[in-house]
Every structure is written in structure tokens, then in C-alpha cells.
């Protein structure tokens, strides 16, 4: 069965087709959920909620662009919805924003460690960092998605980078002293 046929069957609430669509994309969408969730259990909840929305709105998918991209946007928005009403974002003065870069030497820091320290970031920093650095959204798009100002988005990204830079510096210092 082609993807178009699968989508068409999902539009008619065919449970078997929905199960197939779930199996096709669940692992990719779960990794998206992990980036935007505090922990594994919350990521599972976000994935479940995202699929409920996907199946509810699949009639709106017009086969323009990729189905995976459409599903990913719904998944990100589902995860972000948990934070919109909680007020996890600070209002900041845009003049106070300092751009920070994070230098990572692949030999010194494992990808698992990087993912774990990103996961440990406070919600407001983790969400903006993931949207900007990992999913290539602009500050303007992030501001609209999270209902914050562009300055708040820039500030939260800078603070996330500062925290990550410090954690990587600390990790390298401990890691290098242990290998001596």
C-alpha cells in the first residue's frame, strides 16, 4: 500500500491504517518528543497526544510537502502546548542579550552527554535551544510558537548556550583530570 493510500484510509478513521502510520513514524516522532519533554514519561505522553491530533487533523493534510514534516510540526506544537500556559518564559530587555557560542570538541564530549545536558536545561531555555539550534526555527518563529517576544527567545538561547558552555567546561576539566 502506498503512503497516499495509507493517508486516505486514515482520513476515514481506519484503525489498521492508523496503526501502520503510527509504526512508520513513531520512533522519529518520539525522538522529537524527547527533545521537547522533561523526561521519558512526558515524551511518551506527548507522542500519544501528538498522534491523537494527527489522526484528528489528517483530513487537513493536502499532500503538499512531506507528511513527516507535517507530523513533526504537530508533534513539536503538542509538546510546546504544555509550556504555553504555565508561564515558564521570562520577559527580558533585548539590550541585555549577549551572544554566546558553545565550542564542542567531538573527541572530548559524547553525544549522549550533550543530549543529557540539553535535557537538564530549564524548560524555557531547552525549548528555545532545541527549536533554534536543532530544528532551525528563527527567533521570530519561536516567539510566535511560544507566545514570547523575539528578545526573550534570543535571551533564552543565549542563557541556554551559557549553561551548556559551563557544563561542557566543567565536564572537560573533570574528564581531563581523571585521565592524567
Automatic annotation (TrEMBL):
Q: Which domain of life is it from?
A: Bacteria
Question: InterPro entries, alphabetically?
Answer: RNA_pol_sigma-70-like, RNA_pol_sigma-70_dom, RNA_pol_sigma70_r2, RNA_pol_sigma70_r4_t2, RNA_pol_sigma_r2, RNA_pol_sigma_r3/r4-like, WH-like_DNA-bd_sf
All copies of the RNA polymerase sigma factor 70 region 4 type domain together span: 112-162
Pfam families assigned: Sigma70_r2, Sigma70_r4_2
Q: Which UniProt keywords apply?
A: Sigma factor, Transcription, Transcription regulation
Domain RNA polymerase sigma-70 region intervals: 21-85
Keyword Secreted in the entry? The reply is no
Q: Which GO terms describe its molecular function?
A: DNA binding; sigma factor activity
A Gene Ontology biological process noted in the UniProt record is:
DNA-templated transcription initiation
Q: Which PANTHER family match?
A: RNA POLYMERASE ECF-TYPE SIGMA FACTO (PTHR43133), RNA POLYMERASE SIGMA-70 FACTOR ECF SUBFAMILY (PTHR43133:SF46)
To which protein family does this belong?
Belongs to the sigma-70 factor family. ECF subfamily.
Task: Spell out the protein name for this chain.
Answer: RNA polymerase sigma factor
Query: What organism is recorded for this protein?
Result: Psychroserpens burtonensis
Amino acid at each position: 500500500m502506498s503512503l497516499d493510500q495509507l493517508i486516505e484510509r486514515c482520513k476515514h478513521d481506519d484503525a489498521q491504517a492508523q496503526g501502520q502510520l503510527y509504526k512508520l513514524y513513531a520512533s522519529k516522532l518520539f525522538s522529537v518528543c524527547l527533545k521537547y519533554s522533561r523526561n521519558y514519561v512526558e515524551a511518551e505522553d506527548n507522542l500519544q497526544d501528538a498522534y491523537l491530533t494527527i489522526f484528528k487533523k489528517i483530513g487537513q493534510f493536502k499532500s503538499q510537502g512531506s507528511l513527516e514534516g507535517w507530523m513533526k510540526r504537530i508533534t513539536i506544537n503538542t509538546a510546546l502546548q504544555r509550556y504555553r500556559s504555565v508561564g515558564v518564559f521570562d520577559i527580558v530587555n533585548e539590550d541585555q542579550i549577549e551572544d554566546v557560542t558553545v565550542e564542542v570538541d567531538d573527541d572530548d564530549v559524547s553525544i549522549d552527554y550533550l543530549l543529557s545536558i540539553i535535557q537538564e536545561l530549564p524548560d524555557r531555555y531547552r525549548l528555545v535551544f532545541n527549536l533554534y539550534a536543532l530544528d532551525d526555527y528563527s527567533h521570530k518563529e519561536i516567539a510566535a510558537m511560544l507566545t514570547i517576544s523575539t528578545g526573550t527567545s534570543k535571551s533564552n538561547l543565549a542563557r541556554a548556550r551559557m549553561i551548556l558552555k559551563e557544563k561542557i567546561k566543567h565536564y572537560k576539566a573533570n574528564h581531563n583530570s581523571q585521565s592524567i
